[in-house]
């Protein structure tokens, strides 16, 4: 039984795929913004001297990193309602992805904070800055430039992870591709196009991130 | 006549112990096969990326970049629909393991390339200077150094494969997550059973992480 | 007349190790005091206690009569509030061995940061002061450059400007030439000499013996957490009274 490639069926539904891609991107962007806030807070908590902050933070990071993200997605959407927390599909997925990325970003930011030479804090203290002033004017700006590469690769990873929203029927790219596959039976073409869309987007994102890094780089 | 008491979580857990254990077995099998096949393939890819002639290297690069730019779920679904429903008539299990192995190979290939290329050229020069052939240099000088670098990252990839095995539930393979979902659909006890599944996966991955740290500790050359 | 700096019985421990074992030190306005000694003698630690980068367990430090870092509250010795310690740090300026310039800011911004954020000066006033000091240390033409674009000597001179622009009562120098390439050491030492001749009060930890001999009004030799010997460099270096100082001078290259 031969299989002749015929992309026309897929092209007809290309707009649906693009809409799905748009939703995937939006999910990733919102999740990483929330995730950054969480990650920053957790990173500071991990470096805190008080174990009241450090232990829960470490627990959070370990649990998230060692649990499959699909389990987290399903748990948030199906199990949390039994605790009274009932979220819509998209909210639930974004919340899960944000919590997921927060744990990974916490490690990124923690490493970033360590990479800031301690002498800079001392120099800030020596001219009379308070710890909070040092954190905002010196530590964070220096750290941000150091973590930019790790941050962009985390974002690209997160974008790929949005495909899991398909498991709870969120109409992002993978879900749309699967629907088209089932409707048209054009198995090879659908998935080639879907993969290419993901790969192309990842490449564009990588180029964009490199440009941002270049712009923010401190001249040497 | 007294009303029938609803069964507790532990009762259901006991009743469901066989399906859950079967699911766990599937998870372990899937992960193991994917890691082994993926690593072997990954070694080939890695060698091609590092030492291959220009066309081979380019092909390996294309392969790696394409696979790594695609979400694992898409790889699993694509493999399922293309290989299972149309092409080679593979079972969902086979299609799923194939997809995971391919995913694993792209990571292992990159790790290997990175490790081999990070060994300073001076090492190869020193080996040449004492008359070693390339295969000997590779075996006695490059591989031992590369392995030490690869091990922690490879263990990390293995943990990723265990987590990725959950994706096979989407194509109907009866691993732990799907078994859990089936039990939930009968008992409606989503909270405790999802929690249990999460805890089991956590335990497996945490164990792998600890094992990795142990290996790393044992193989680090003390400075 | 109140002394500018008065240290009495300064003691500091790191865990079980005693680093400072009761140090006394007085400085008047205009004094240039060099502190010498082998590593581990406690000289850097003493400096860092003065601006509370290190805490200390016993003793008092007073600048212009104000007690630094700790206060007696109802008979109990207690660390002052962080806000007050930050304010007290304005009494001193510190220059570090590793420069510690803020890498994401230009030389000019490095100097104005403290003026704007701590002294709450308006921007143009801060710029004027910053530029004056950058010119004084000889790096004004590089004011728009980032630390990564400057040589070690230029960076250290910017660091000096940053510290001195805050108008401190006392300047603290912590081995500021030890991390510099030999050719760059002199430009920094020259700046310090100029500031000394302008009447700046300075406490300088250094290995540069000739520099100490030339610039200081007084030299302190520290040995194992205590002051071993103290006095006029012209006397001390030529006729050391203690054996330890004699050994130390022999082992350091001093013509």
Describe this structure in words.
The complex is a heterotrimer of chains A (220), B (223) and C (255). Chain A is mainly alpha-helical and 220 residues long. Chain A has one domain (8-216): MetI-like fold (Orthogonal Bundle), CATH 1.10.3720.10. Chain A contains nine helices and no strands. In chain A, helix 2 runs antiparallel to helix 8 (173-184) and helix 6 (118-126) packs antiparallel against helix 7. Chain A is flat and about 70 Å long. The termini of chain A are far apart. The mean pLDDT of chain A is 91. Chain B is mostly helical and 223 residues long. Chain B has a single domain, classed as MetI-like fold (Orthogonal Bundle), CATH 1.10.3720. Chain B is built from nine helices and no strands. In chain B, helix 4 crosses helix 5. The longest helix of chain B has 35 residues, at 17-51. Chain B starts with 8 loop residues before the first helix and ends with a helix. The relative contact order of chain B is 0.14. The radius of gyration of chain C is 18 Å and the shape is globular. In chain C, a hairpin with a 2-residue loop joins strand 1 (5-14) and strand 2 (17-27). Chain C is built from nine helices and twelve strands. In chain C, 35% of the residues lie in helices and 26% in strands. In chain C, the strands form three sheets. Chain C has a six-stranded mixed sheet, with helices on both faces. In chain C, strands 2-1-4-5 form a four-stranded antiparallel sheet, with helices on one face. Chain C is an alpha/beta fold and 255 residues long. The interface between A and B is large, with 40 and 38 residues.
């Amino acid at each position: 039984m031969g299989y002749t490639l015929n992309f026309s069926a897929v092209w007809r539904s290309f707009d649906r795929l693009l809409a799905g891609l748009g939703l995937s991107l939006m999910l990733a962007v919102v999740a990483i913004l929330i995730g950054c806030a969480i990650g920053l807070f957790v990173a500071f908590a991990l470096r805190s001297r008080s174990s009241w902050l450090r232990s829960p933070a470490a627990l959070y990071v370990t649990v998230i990193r060692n649990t499959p993200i699909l389990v987290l997605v399903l748990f948030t959407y199906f199990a949390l309602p039994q605790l009274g927390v009932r979220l819509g599909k998209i909210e639930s997925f974004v919340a899960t992805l944000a919590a997921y990325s927060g744990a990974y970003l916490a490690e990124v930011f923690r490493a970033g904070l360590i990479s800031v030479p301690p002498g800079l804090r001392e120099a800030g203290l020596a001219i009379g800055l308070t710890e909070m002033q040092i954190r905002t004017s010196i530590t964070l700006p220096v750290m941000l430039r150091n973590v930019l590469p790790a941050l962009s690769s985390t974002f690209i990873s997160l974008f790929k992870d949005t495909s899991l929203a398909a498991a709870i029927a969120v109409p992002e790219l993978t879900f749309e591709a699967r629907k088209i596959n089932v409707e048209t039976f054009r198995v090879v073409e659908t998935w080639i196009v879907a993969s290419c869309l993901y790969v192309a987007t990842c490449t564009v994102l990588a180029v964009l991130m490199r440009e941002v890094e270049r712009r923010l780089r401190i001249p040497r | 006549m007294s009303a029938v008491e609803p069964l507790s979580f532990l009762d259901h857990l006991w009743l469901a112990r066989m399906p859950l254990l079967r699911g766990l077995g599937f998870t372990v099998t899937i992960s193991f096969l994917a890691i082994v096949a993926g690593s072997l393939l990954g070694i080939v890819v890695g060698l091609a990326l590092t030492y291959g002639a220009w066309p081979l290297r380019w092909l390996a690069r294309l392969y790696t970049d394409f696979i790594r730019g695609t979400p694992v779920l898409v790889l699993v679904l694509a493999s399922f629909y293309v290989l299972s429903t149309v092409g080679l008539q593979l079972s969902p299990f086979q299609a799923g393991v194939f997809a995971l192995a391919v995913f694993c190979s792209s990571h292992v290939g990159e790790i290997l390339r990175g490790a081999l290329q990070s060994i300073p050229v001076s090492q190869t020069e020193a080996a040449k200077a004492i008359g070693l052939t390339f295969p000997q240099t590779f075996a006695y000088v490059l591989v031992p150094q590369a392995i030490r670098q690869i091990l922690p990252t490879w263990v990390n990839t293995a943990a990723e494969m265990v987590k990725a095995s959950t994706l096979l539930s989407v194509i109907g393979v009866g691993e732990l997550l799907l078994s859990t979902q089936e039990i939930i659909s009968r008992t409606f006890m989503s909270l405790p059973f999802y929690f249990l599944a999460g805890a089991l996966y956590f335990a497996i991955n945490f164990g792998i992480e600890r094992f990795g740290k142990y290996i790393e500790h044992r193989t680090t050359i003390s400075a | 007349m109140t002394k500018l700096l008065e240290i009495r019985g300064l003691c500091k421990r790191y865990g079980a190790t005693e680093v400072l074992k009761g140090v006394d030190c007085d400085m008047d306005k205009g004094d240039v005091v060099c502190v010498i000694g082998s590593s581990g003698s406690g000289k850097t630690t003493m400096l860092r206690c003065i601006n509370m980068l290190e805490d200390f367990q016993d003793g008092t430090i007073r600048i212009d009569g104000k007690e630094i870092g700790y206060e007696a509250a109802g008979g109990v010795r207690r660390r002052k509030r962080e806000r007050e310690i930050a304010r007290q740090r304005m009494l001193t300026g510190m220059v570090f061995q590793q420069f510690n310039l803020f890498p994401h800011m230009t030389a000019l911004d490095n100097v104005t940061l403290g003026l704007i954020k701590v002294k709450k000066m308006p921007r143009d006033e801060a710029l004027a002061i910053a530029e004056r000091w950058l010119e004084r240390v000889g790096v004004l033409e590089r004011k728009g450059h980032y630390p990564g674009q400057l040589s070690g000597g230029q960076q250290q001179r910017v660091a000096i400007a940053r510290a001195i622009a805050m108008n401190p009562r006392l300047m603290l120098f912590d081995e500021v030439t030890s991390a510099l390439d030999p050719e760059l050491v002199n430009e920094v030492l020259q700046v310090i000499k100029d500031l000394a001749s302008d009447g700046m009060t300075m406490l300088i930890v250094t290995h540069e013996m000739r520099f100490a001999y030339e610039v200081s009004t007084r030299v302190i030799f520290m040995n194992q957490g205590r002051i071993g010997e103290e006095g006029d460099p012209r006397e001390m270096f030529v006729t050391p009274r203690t054996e330890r100082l004699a050994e130390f001078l022999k082992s350091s290259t001093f013509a």
